[in-house]
Amino acid sequence: MSGTESKAGRSVLVSELSARLVALRKRAGMTQRGVADAMGEARAGQRLVGRLERGGVGSASLVTLVEYLRAVRAGFHDLKDVIDRYTSLPIPEPARKRAEAAPLPRVQTCGRALVNRTDRSYRTHSEARTPNREEERRVLRLRRRAGYWALRRLFEFYLHSGLDAGGVAGWSKFRRIMAAYGRRVFNALYRTHGTKEPKRAERLARLREWAARKTLDRTLAEYSEALAELAYKDMCEHDEIDWMSPEAEARAIMAVKPRRRVVTDAQMCYAEWYSAWSRYSSAALAIYEKAHKAALEVAESARCDAPTLRRYRQAAMRASNIARSTLPDTSKRKQSVANWNTTAWPAAMNRKLLDRILAAALAVWDAGIPTLPPAPGPMPV
C-alpha cells in the first residue's frame, strides 16, 4: 500500500466520521447551536461544531470529540464500524524498511564478499543515534505525557458524575478525600498498564493504607476505587488508554502548569453550584419585582399629597423586602408582620391601606414560591 493510497484512506475516514457526527446530531434532534451549548462552547462553539462536521474531525483532539459525543448522547460504539473499516486496511511499508529488508550489495575483493559500507542502508550503532532520531524520541515522550493529561481530564468527568450519582455532597470533606483517592487509584492503574501490571496489587495496597490514614470510610474508599477501575476499563475497551495527543496540542498542554491542565471535580462542583445559584437568584428577583409592583400599585391608589405618597412607596418597598426574606407560616414571617403592625407610621398614612400594601406583596411572593428552583446548599470548598 503506497503513501498516496494511505492518504486517500485517511480522507475517506475523515469524511465518514464527519457524516456520522451529523447523523448522530440529527438523531438526537439537536441543532449545531444546541450541541455547542451542551459542549459548554457558548461563543464560538457553533463554528467549532460546524468545523467538526465539515471534516475538522481529522485535526480535532480526543477531548473535543468526546465532548461532542457526550452532547449528542452518543459514544464511541456509534463510530466503531467506521473506525474498524479504516483499521482493517493494510499498513503502508516505509521505503526505508523495504530498503533494509533487501539484501545488502556485496563487493568481490580477493575472492571474498565484503559488505559495501558506502551503502546508506548500512548504519552502525553510533550512526543510528542522529539528532533527528533523538528529536523524534523527545516528541514521542511529549505526546505520551500530554496524552496522559487528556485522559486525566476525561477521568475527572467520570469521577464527578460517579460521585454525584452516589449522592456525595460537593462541599463535604469526604468528597475531597474520595476524589483525591480516586485520582491516585487511576494513576496507579495507568502507570501499571501493560508490562508493569504485576506491580499493580502492591501499589493499590499502599493506596488503601493511605485512605485509612485519611480516616476515609472503607465503603467510600471502595466506591472511589470502583469508579477509577470502571473508567480505566472503559478506556481500555475503547483503545484510549494509549492515546497520544498530536504534537501541536501536546506542546500546548505541557506549556500549562499541571494544576491548570484539567478541570477538577471541585471546580466542577463549584461551577454547578454557581449555575444553580444564578438560576435561583434570577427566578427570585423576577418574583420579587412582581411583588413590589403589586404593592406599589396599591400605594399609588392613595389620594394624598406628594410627601405622603412618597412614604407609601417606601412602605411598598419594605413590604416586598419582608415578603422576599420570609416564608409563610414561619416565626420569622410572624415577627416581621408584628414589627410592621407596631411601626409608628405618620398620622397622614391610612393603616388599612398599609395593611393592603403588605398583603399584596405577601400574596404575590407566596404564590411564586412553588415556581422557584431549589436553592443550592452551602458553597463547595
Structural overview:
It is a single chain. This protein has a two-stranded antiparallel sheet. Helices cover 66% and strands 2% of the residues. It has three domains: 3-87, 434 Repressor (Amino-terminal Domain) (Orthogonal Bundle); 133-263, no CATH class; 270-371. Helix 2 packs across helix 4 (62-71) and helix 9 packs antiparallel against helix 10 (200-213). It is mainly alpha-helical and 381 residues long. It has 16 helices and two strands.
Topology:
Blueprint: H1 3-27, H2 32-39, H3 45-53, H4 62-71, H5 80-87, H6 95-101, E1 106-109, E2 112-115, H7 125-128, H8 131-165, H9 173-191, H10 200-213, H11 218-237, H12 247-254, H13 265-300, H14 306-325, H15 331-341, H16 351-368
Antiparallel strand pairs: 1-2
How would you briefly describe this protein structure?
The protein is an all-alpha fold and 381 residues long.
